[in-house]
Specification:
Elements: H1 3-31, H2 44-47, E1 54-57, H3 63-73, E2 83-86, H4 92-104, E3 108-111, H5 116-129, E4 133-135, H6 138-148, H7 158-162, H8 164-178, E5 193-198, H9 203-211, E6 217-222, E7 240-244, H10 247-260, H11 272-289, E8 292-295, H12 301-315
Length: 331
Amino acid sequence: MLIQPLINRTFLLIFCYFVKNLLYFMLNNMFYDRNTSLLEPMNAEKMEKQIGPIYIVSGGKGLAGNNMVHSLLIQYPNNNVPVIIVPDQYEEEQLTDLVEKAKKEDGLIAHTMVNRKLRYFLRKECEEQGVKHIDFMGELADYLDEKLQIPSLQSPGLYREIHQQYFDRIEAIEFTLNHDDGMQPQKLVNAEIILTGVSRSGKTPLSVYLAMYGWKVANIPLVNSIEPPKELFEVDPRRVFGLSITPGQLISHRIKRLRSINNTDNTKYVDEKMVMLEIRNANFIFEKGGFTVINISNKPVETSANEILNTLANRFEYRGHRLDSPYPQDE
């Protein structure tokens, strides 16, 4: 019976102590100048804390450290702290130069060095030069070394290398969603596959399906009386696929769409003569651009996707993916 009141009182004392120290910190570091009376508020210029840059140092690409730093910086609105990623640090000389630079700029070094020798060297350099540093990996790595008794590979970027296919897929999906339905036509040149066709011909479902397998896809809608973007005729036509569909199936798809949005009054959208005209105009554009025509009528999306991918594989290196060659290019 006496224990609970004692616990409550202890908790209250700890809470009051915490609040007291928090208020003291705020008064002395945030709202008032140390060199003025507590009754004199700081002006706007003095309230802006100017600090040096945060250098994110890594033997890989610095993505893990960058995420850590930004996940904390976002808690401080309008902080304007410069963040500089310094990737691919393999040599002691690189780290020495970086520490000297950070010292001159009153910066902080946050690092994710998985190579033990370089990690210890960087920590030593920072301490000798008086540069503030934060080791995201060291303490955990030392703990795992002790507990697991397994030699560490100490290979920078290993996680991303092993999971590269996953990261490529995410990048492809983001690209495809950002280039759906004619968005950003100026970036069509970056697409690996470009789909074009009339409304409800299956461009978006096919685009997303291909993106799930790591392909960067853009799609361009063809609408009567509206010129397609000029970029559609400037890209490599071997990467452009025109989606063809029978009038009956197209009308069926459009009726379902109109019902789903409760817009059955739009008879022009499903008028047979208008649909026939749209399909004819789309075929003219396919022929003008020299695009490959894929008939998607009564086909599951995976069948159309396989047809496109097999065509690309026969036309390009790397089965159609845009990849940099690992071999040196002759000048």
